[in-house]
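Quick one:
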Amino acid sequence: MDGSRFDSWTRRRFGLATGGALASILGIAALQDADAKKHKNKNKKKKKKCRKLGQTCDINDKNKKCCNDKQDCAQVQGQGSGAFCCKSLNGGCSVNTDCCGNRKCTSGKCVNP
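Output:
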């Protein structure tokens, strides 16, 4: 084998080996980025959802609280059985079913009858 032929054969082999190594490195880097994105979403905490006025709630379940500090989870007159998110004493209301227990909506506030 003469010198020029050996040089071209060596360059070709070296080029293929270099290209393969470079492709492997890029492939591994892409997998690590995708893996990092996948784990990043797992670390996000889910927001605790609150119940709105008139929605059913569980008195014993602390994770599903009623929205707004002026709302309670209690029985509501005229809503049937079970507990609902309702307005406490002196809470703003528009109808009687907005108020907890046997309270009435008078002048836009929940008051005792």
